[in-house]
Amino acid sequence: MDPKWNEDLPIYRQLRDRVVAMILEGVLGDGDALPSVRNVAAEYRLNPLTVLKGYQELVDEGLVEKKRGRGMFVNDGARVKLLKDERRRFIEKEWPIVSATIERLGLSAEDLLKDVGKPGKGDKND
After folding, report:
1. Are 34 and 73 in contact (CB under 8 A)?
2. CA 114, CA 4: separation in Å to the nearest integer?
3. Could you give the CA distance from residue 52 to residue 12 in angstroms, rounded to a whole number?
4. Statement: the pTM of the whole predicted model exceeds 0.85
5. How far apart are CA 50 and CA 55, in angstroms?
6. Torsion angle, CA of 49/9/60/2, rounded to 10 degrees?
7. How many angstroms separate the CA atoms of 37 and 14, rounded?
8. Residue 80: in which H helix or E strand, if any?
């Protein structure tokens, strides 16, 4: 996990988002243990209650389960659930903004796809 924190968002929420990113990227898979609350708190100099609050959000969302005395573990199907939810959120919240920007700039699908994956494209000198 990245130790840099954004001051505009509560740390517990950023911690939750980082675990979500680890699940989406396959760093954490079904059944994998999350780093312990104590370890995360010590490593990032956070209050253990802050870490626990971030983890509790994951439990509340059904992505993680607590196993008494053993820790927290990624639930089976968490990545699939997250992909579904994140895709829906992107289409409902982010895509309208992206689409409006594309339209405002007069870009075509061809414009957008021709330089995909080419580093340095879109620089002011292109």
Report:
1. yes
2. 34
3. 8
4. no
5. 9
6. -70
7. 15
8. helix 78-89
Sign of the Cα torsion 37, 40, 45, 50 reads negative
Residue spans of the domains in the chain: they are 11-77, 79-114
Tokens of 54: 């971030």
d(CA 108, CA 59): 42
Residue 85, helix vs strand vs coil: helix
The H or E element spanning position 66 is strand 64-67
Domain 11-77 -> CATH class: mainly alpha
Q: Render each residue's pLDDT in the chain as its tens digit; 126 residues.
A: 556 888 889 999 999 999 999 999 999 999 999 999 999 999 999 999 999 999 999 999 999 999 999 999 999 999 999 999 989 999 999 999 999 999 999 998 888 888 776 765 544 444
- Angstrom distance (rounded) from CA 102 to CA 17: 28
Helix H or strand E segment including 84: helix 78-89
How far apart (Å, rounded) are the C-alpha atoms in residues 114 and 51? Answer: 43
